[in-house]
Design goal:
9 helices, Arc Repressor Mutant, subunit A, 77% helix, 0% strand, 3 domains, 169 residues, single chain
């Protein structure tokens, strides 16, 4: 029964050993039977917390733009050992984090054009904080992107003014 539950759970997506142990406990599988099945699945490579952590970091950092701090917290919540999680999170370096933060801010900055700069800054900083970015990096990236957006808008206004002036008789 424990074997079948684990196999079914692993069919949908990879799981950590802790997630499977929690599932077996919820189904009232005796602890010794659960441990035996989990040990065997680990032996044959069906459960690999390190591989799970690496895949999770790749997916969540690229897809959701999460910072290392948020990735570590998610892995801990999934039951991944802190050393294994730290090793997986080390794959994300400072530049990866900065690029991901910038991509997030650029994506959101366009929808904040009508807002004053202070409000846009506060909202963008909050979004980055919820994704695990530290305040220093968040402030620098937000400032950079908003400066670029402001410069682009000023250039657009100059083009419009020029077009209007050149259209005069």
């Amino acid at each position: 029964m424990a074997r079948a539950l684990c196999l079914r759970a692993l069919t949908g997506a990879p799981k950590t050993r802790q997630q499977l142990a929690d599932l077996l406990a919820q189904r009232d599988i005796p602890e010794d039977a659960a441990t035996t099945v989990l040990d065997r699945f680990t032996e044959v490579g069906l459960i690999d917390d390190a591989a799970f952590a690496r895949a999770w970091v790749n997916s969540r950092q690229a897809g959701r733009g999460l910072a290392r701090r948020a990735l570590s917290a998610e892995l801990r919540a999934k039951g991944v050992d802190s050393e294994v999680a730290a090793e997986a999170v080390e794959m994300v370096d400072d530049e990866d984090e900065r690029v991901a933060a910038r991509r997030l801010v650029e994506r959101r900055a366009g929808s904040m054009r009508r807002l004053d700069r202070a409000t846009a800054t506060r909202r963008l900083m909050g979004m980055l904080a919820r994704k695990g970015y530290n305040g220093g990096l968040a402030a620098a990236v937000v400032r950079e992107v908003l400066d670029e957006v402001g410069a682009a808008e000023e250039a657009d206004e100059l083009v419009v003014e020029y077009d209007q002036e050149s259209a005069l008789p």
